[in-house]
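Lab notebook, bench 4. We co-purified these components, and the gel suggests they stay together. Before we commit to crystallization screens, I want a quick structural picture of the whole thing.
Request: model the full complex, all chains together.
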Amino acid sequence: MNVLKVSRWTIAAFIMPCLIVYLGLVFVPILVSIYSGLMDWNGIGKATFIGFSNYAKMFTHDPVFWPAVRRTFTLAGFSMLVQVPVALLVAILITRFVRRPNFLVSSYFLPVILSVAIIGQLWKTIYNPAAMGGMINQILIKVGLESWTHSWLTEPKIAIYAIILVSLWQYLGYHILIQFTGIQNIPSEIYEAAKIDGASGFKADRYITLPMVLPILKISIVLSFIGSLQSFDLIMVMTAGGPAHATEVLASHMYNMSFITMEYGYGSAIANMLILICLIATVLINLLFTRLEKRYS
Amino acid sequence: MKKKPFKFFGMAMTGVLAISLSACGGGGAATTNNAAGGDTGTDSSGGKSGSTENITITFQNIYPDASDPKNQMMKKIVEQYEKEHTNVKIELDSLNTDQQKLKLKTQAASKEVPDITVVNPAAQMQPFVDEDLFAPLNDMVEENGLKDTFQKGILDYYTFDGNLYALPDGNNIGVVFYNKKLMEEGGVKVPTTFEEMVDAVKTLKGKGIQPMVIGEKDSWTGSFLFMNILLRTNGGPGFLQDVLDGKKTFEDQAYVDAVQAFENLVQAGAFQDGATSFDYNSGENLFKTGKAAMYYMGSWATGGIETAEVSKDDNVGVFKFPTVGGKGNADEFMLAPGSAFAISKNSKHLDETKDFLNYFMTNFPKEAFEAKGAVGIAQNVDGDFKAAGYSDMAMNVLDLFKEVKGGDLAFDNTMNPATTQVHLSGIQGLFVEQKDPAAVAKELQAAYEENK
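Here is the predicted assembly.
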């Protein structure tokens, strides 16, 4: 604690503003939402206490809830199992083969800084039917794959995957940046030593890069998981959860219930589930990585 | 040695933080305290308000677009009012419809409704009225005959237990706009029955012309059209009211038939590919840019279509929604009483706010007429539309208004929000998947019973 040679009071004084804002903007709302999750409340009028009825309804009655959970996890799964590994691969390739990688990494990062509304509109146009100038469908027709054309965002079975693809595309650069930085931080002496011992190329990646980048990989995975659970804006812009709830995820369902259907209490209950899932998943991911790290160190 | 600069730096930083924090607090206090000043003497008000205190009235509205005639009109009236009442400042809070709905709900939850706000008719404003958030306007509309400027019956949609709570800016009906040139190219006539309409759709489709368009991402659009079909299959208005009164259920034949008819239309290929990903504006734009032959919408779209490319050479006409299966009366329309201005019961300056709203609504028809936005407003307009340069299409719409013999309100104006959402997504689902009409009806009935 005394490394910085600053008094504890000074540290406290610095932390306080942030802490107060953090507590006020994160913890207080969570408490309030736990409380209103026990209420039957339309958001305006009087709330009546109904115990856990909201949760009972959510688990047994709500035809949208479980499919929304499934879609949320599909998105998270794709993000963790496809996006992050691909990002790692790209990061490794960039580090190894590109001499001035900054430009490339920045380009990959570009979609992340664009507003989701722009990304959504852009991809909506790309996904449009050919008659409306949709790029994908026109290309498919040009190369003679007319039977492959779809109305990507409106066919219930594929719409959610169309959105997942956009979300993976957008945040790929984010994970590349994180992991690229992680790999850069591995001391080059280790690779040099390994080279002398005869380990280079992908062998070096397998035994040096992968283990040493694990902590960074963990951050990436946790971020991608939580990000997927919170995915909301992209869905709102592209389909608003439609057609007929076919692209509804937990966050959009929560929003619709709270503000459109005006069942604020029920919406809060869904929000609490979301928090719970986030917490459990974060703990699980941490456990998994602690094990992995132990094995490799 | 090293310790000192750090400590000094630390203290300085904390100081800066403290100052910036307290500055924030101060700023907040200053904005909430807007009625602080007291006695600037010059009172030129009409004497009604009597007070000379400087006051600010917050006017939440849904006219944020500066190029929209309504926005210009509003600013003009507000300016006039401020000129005549120098002690009153009208603060505009202009938001788009969805933002405003959300903001009002948030404000209502904390009982901080702005002096004037915007609500939707009937069932949609019911929760706010139940919470006693709005001031009754009965006296205010009586005192100078404002009430009589409104069309007959329109104020009923904003009246609860004999108390009028809001004054509407619009009163519209559902009509079908059509592109004369495309209809001619396709060789189809204006349909007089729904069956002819489905045939026309098929013919147009066969000739490569997009028969109809819709912005079904905003699911109310499909519902609005569907409800017009229901109005026919039910043989007249009042189906939803009958459901509410327990005389009918959604599983009745009228509703099932309407779903079937709607599916026929969709399956005939009436709507553009990917209709459920088009929002209201982009759907309407397809019609406005001449890409579709027919477009079903409320008459509020008249102004926008009138000024669009497609209307050149008087190319757009309107027709009444036809009868379905020989049932219904084409003179019964989907009625869409517009959004309306309500006054917060807890307003600090209730009398002044009422006075201003009275002034605003009294001047509304005249200004709207001049801004060429008077088609579909809720008040009677004196003036020769034709002479004022309104297009033939606008004249046609105005003629249709004269033929209205009753009708129904949109689903969300009659039913509670939870049932409405199930209905909306049920209809949206029909655009992407063919379903058994009875099953659609059954699902809705179940949702209705659960959320009664």
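The radius of gyration of chain A is 23 Å. Worth comparing against the SEC data before the next meeting. The CA atoms of residues 230 and 251 of chain A lie 6 Å apart.
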